[in-house]
Amino acid sequence: MLVTLAPVRAADLTSLSLEELLDVEVTSVGKKSQPLADAAAAVFVISNEDIRRSGATSVPEALRMAPGLTVKRLDANKWSISARGFGGRLSNKLLVLIDGRTVYSPAFSGVYWEQQDVMLEDIERIEVIRGPGATLWGANAVNGVINILTKSSAATQGGLLAAGGGSEERALGALRYGGELAPGTFARAYVKYNERDALVTASGEDGRDAWDIAQGGFRVDSTLAAGDRVTVQGDLYRSNLRQQLLVPDPFLPPAFMSAIDDRLNASGWNLLGRWERALSVTSDVSLKLYYDHAERHEYYAGQRNDILDLEFQQRAKVGERHDLVWGLGYRNIDDHFDNTLITNVNPAAESRNLWNLFIQDDIELIRDRLRLTLGSKFEHNDYTGLEIQPNLRLLWKPSEQTSLWGAISHAVRTPARVERSANIWLINVQSLPTPLATLPVVPQVSGTSEFDSELLTAYELGFRATPTRRLSLDLALFYNDYDRLRTISQDGAQLRWETLANGYLIAELPGANQARGHGYGAELAVEAQVRDDWRLMLAYSALELDIQSPAGQEQENDLLARVDPRQQVSLRSQFNPRPDIDLDVWVRYVDQSDSSFIFGNPGDSLVPSYWELDLRLAWRPRPKVELSIVGQNLLHASHREGYQDVYGFQRLEVERGVYGLLRLSF
């Protein structure tokens, strides 16, 4: 039984009308607070109440609610999350932030979601932007931005206790307490622990990938006498993950592969400070500084990353028509790899710097009706030098209930550390017959200093409306034009003889930027207040991706184009038969897809389409107590969602699960 304790707030977003929901403030689109209805971007907001009523126990599972995102659970402790294509274990075109702190890894280009175990009760909202956000957020905000925003300490006063478990969620627990340290100064601290069961193979065997994570943290928010606002927050975590690996073994014919049980130990901490001052009613400045340390130790490689980030920002009204936001930023990245036979990074340790300047102007062409947004980011990194990422957006509001917008944006995905300086063995060892013996050939992807940034030019159109008080619509259309996409070719590979043991061949496959392509699609979000006690939420996504590669490289990129499903549907129902009872239903459909096994055989990693169902029943016997039972993935005993890429992990399936939940505040 899962137990979680939290207050039920009357002011949660589900108590708002649909018109009021469009007035909910978002900050990720313009780096300033603005109503959702005025955002000239494809943005979707997941509220704290949405998370609670979904039954999700992690951020990746909660992100399934957003249109345009593809969420695949690869094993018990790994996810693939992407926006508008290019999914994978470490999807490299999606930028993720927690309270403005970037958690996108510069080492492998992607997010280690198993290390982002945010306390769900502390989340105020998750803002999901599909499409480029590079003008404000910088390189790698190519296909989307996810900004996880937590509540202020003043909003989490008192205590919260959580404890529980179930068939798959073996143990869940959290303790949080908040108080007022001094007039205008509030603080909270928390600890949490999660333990999750292993997934299963297609034959029902244990996947040997169970894991646990312990985390703690704090946040202090203070309003000073001069009106300045200061926030200091930090987190500390340690996790232990099991995984079964398939590794190339040139000394084990005929398959030249072996399976090993591995333990991955991950740990880290972060500290963030933010200062804000209002210079006038129409002008403010802010300064943000954070330090992030993360370590991972596993069979493939060990790595340590330290990031120091500093950002200054100012917003000012210039005249009656211009709302200007500009800023400066600096980031230092220091990393170190413990090399292995599978992964070799040279040099093993490296420090690099990133400098940036951004400026964006909202120009009100017709008051409350027509607004033009112009801006660009100028970013310099040690790998590719200066990158310029402009955007142009236009918003037209023919009425208070309707808005139309369009955008043209340019974004870049800068090289990851391993793409410039690493040699990585792939899992599909080949056999080369010779007169004397059959020799193993190990494919090795080789990083090169010639690897350049990937480029995107995006064209978007959007429409939002509340035709009635009980119905809202949000439609986004997009066309993405990609250039200089990453390629890896078997043709022309250079063979290198290694004399270790009986000897084997290394096929060096250098990375390059020789592919281009395009993607297009549509995303729809519909919300209907059927009755005062019943709300329906529909999300639909359609995606087509086509990649053109030089001769000899088609297979890798054809597989990549099929990684994300062409269609996805999510339908959620939130019903309150009585004020003290919740009945929540979540139905999902995910179209057929593939997995990005480099040089895999077509069909080897096919993921069939599937339907799934989650149910949640909750009862509040008292205002500060909530009891619930949640069933997840109820339509199948198990189903596959995706497989690992590049490195070899066992192919596993997500199981049906049931857990109980208690929420109590004090």
TrEMBL record:
One Gene Ontology molecular-function label: siderophore uptake transmembrane transporter activity
Topology with respect to the bilayer: Multi-pass membrane protein
This protein's UniProt keywords: Cell outer membrane, Membrane, Receptor, Signal, TonB box, Transmembrane, Transmembrane beta strand, Transport
Residue ranges occupied by any TonB-dependent receptor-like beta-barrel domain in the UniProt entry: 215-634
Segments forming domain TonB-dependent receptor plug: 36-145
Pfam families assigned to the protein according to its UniProt record, in alphabetical order: Plug (PF07715), TonB_dep_Rec_b-barrel (PF00593)
Cellular-component GO terms for this entry: cell outer membrane
Claim: Transmembrane is one of the keywords in the record: yes
Subcellular location: Cell outer membrane
Similarity section: Belongs to the TonB-dependent receptor family. Hemoglobin/haptoglobin binding protein subfamily.
Protein name: Outer membrane receptor for ferrienterochelin and colicins
